[in-house]
Amino acid sequence: MLLLLLAMLLGIGHVRAQAFRHPGVLNSQAELDFVRAKIANSQQPWKQAFDNLAGSRYSSLTYTASPYATVECGSYNNPNIGCTEMVDDGMAAYSQALMWAYGRDPRHAKIAIAIMNAWSAKYQNNTESNSRLVVAWATPWFVNAAEIIRYTNAGWSGADIARFEGMLGKFLPYVKNDDKPYNNWIHSRVEAQLAIAVFTDDRTEFNEGTARWTKYVRNSIYQQTDAVRPTWASSGLNGIADETCRDLGHLKLGINSMMYAGQIAWEQGVDLFGPEKKRLTDFFELHGGWMTGSKSVPSSVCGGEVVVRQGDAAGIQPPNGGGGAAFEIAYNHLHSRLNYSALPYTLQLINRHRPATAGHWVFKWETLTHGSLPFNLSPANPAPVVSFASPQNGATFTAPAQLVVTVNASDAGGSVASVGLYLNNVFVRNEGTAPYIWNQSVVDAPLTNLAAGTYTLRATATDNAGQTTSTSITVTVQSGGTSTPPTSASGVSGPACGAAGSTVSYSVKPDNYPFRSASWWTNTGAPVNTNAANTSQMSFTLPASATGSSIQVTAGVNIDVAPWYVEYTKTVQVGNCPAGRAQPASEAFPLPFSASTTLHLADHSLIDEVVVYNMKGVEVYRARNLHRADVEVGKALLPGLYVAHLYSSTGLSVVKILKSTEQ
């Protein structure tokens, strides 16, 4: 039991640490490319499905949005003030985005952007009893469109994306509500929550959404092994569902959202289908047999009459059955990927209704996007990898704070085209080349003079193929005069220069995190000798092959709290060290200063790192990987006397600085 619990915890930790894949709601870029190639070669069922999409009113080049500030949706959408328009415009945005993804006509991308911008600029709230349901129906349409447009270089501006994310923030409370926790209502809300989580790179919402999915799938579809048999499962049949006896229309609304939510999780590396494969298979085969007319509905189920829609005079019966459906995602997962069962009735139902088209309120273009879709698709060029070098997640600063942000980004199969930074979903700036640093050589106003509060930093790396990966951290700015500065230095400590062939030693300390263990490496591959008794320490021999150049020493540190793992890197010069030479004088101007002062070395050496200590010897400021002749400090400091340590290739230089209260 202990080992099982440990494995579960490790699995959860891995999911939390994993970066989101974009585009990654219903389709990845590789899957979109797969379908695009099928259409170009006129292969079925994709070509006919695409023709249906192209002929839809939602794909029209004359389509215009009808946004509402307040959408009023009563029971059964009566009153209907903006309810239909909200969903229709979401359907149109997604349809136009698919037309762009498959046909590359920029006119469709512009229409999709115009629809999303129109709603995000005007929308405020939903009211009346159906508000949660309509928001849940509309959200995935909009987000599927947004993922494609945002990550295919379609020309959607950062400001527009930020405003769209603001609209999703207004949607989120509706879709997180768990009242009416039965099929049609709850599964559309879970789908919407997962879609929002992926677009906003919110791992907490994503984990909560996957947990809700499992809970409510088990609440919606009965298995004889369940501890309790609800009244709607009085027949005792495996696979019977909570809305089977209501009507197939409402039943399919919930089941399709259930499948779309599972697909979203799958795109992000989480398999929800596998653990529930028998429950799901029993559902699709039981209802597929009835809906194809292959089997009669037994008298023990709904009195022998399962109806297609409310008000039908008679239930579905052989030989025609009734109630078409697009269950491509379900069939592909349960049969093609899991190889669990032949699912003959489900396949018969799919073939009878191919190609499936989109429809109210949740039915997506499922044959087009997922018909016979292989499950082992992976892009030839893997998505880029991105992480924050500084600040660390959870770091604390003093108001008015100036953040210097450094991001690491790489791409194994190509190159990093750009890295974008966002502060609280507000775009700061793109960096086109490494090192990816903000608010240092260029002043980035959003990162300057931050007031007290909590801030989210998101870095988004885009590679040369247009693939994108994002990661986020949170930092806190405390009110001036009340904050507690860090109590210990952090990062890799050790010599900044050494002779080739000499042995150098380094240690690492994580930023206010409880240390567990560390792994060390260098970018040269030189052997590293880690202290077995204390892995925060190591030594290695500087390689002769690196003479005259700089190398990087990195410590990967495991910690006992989120984010569970952090990395620190130090640049070391090999050879040409100023042995025996006096340290250069360090200077600061102006002194004293009221806002900031500029540090530099008298011999104009480049400063690699600055650490500022108060008169108690406590570190209050640190900036790494600078490589600059002049460094501005002081904006985040309280008035008082400090000692600044300047590290360069020539060694360590020290200067006292004084911040005055005078303005």
Automatic annotation (TrEMBL):
Keyword tRNA-binding annotated: no
Gene3D superfamilies: Chondroitin AC/alginate lyase, Immunoglobulins
Top-level taxon: Bacteria
Keywords tagged on the record: Lyase, Signal
Coiled coil: none
Record bears the keyword Signal: yes
Signal peptide (from-to): 1-17
Alginate lyase domain sequence ranges: 84-285
Name of the protein: Alginate lyase domain-containing protein
Annotated source species: Hymenobacter glaciei
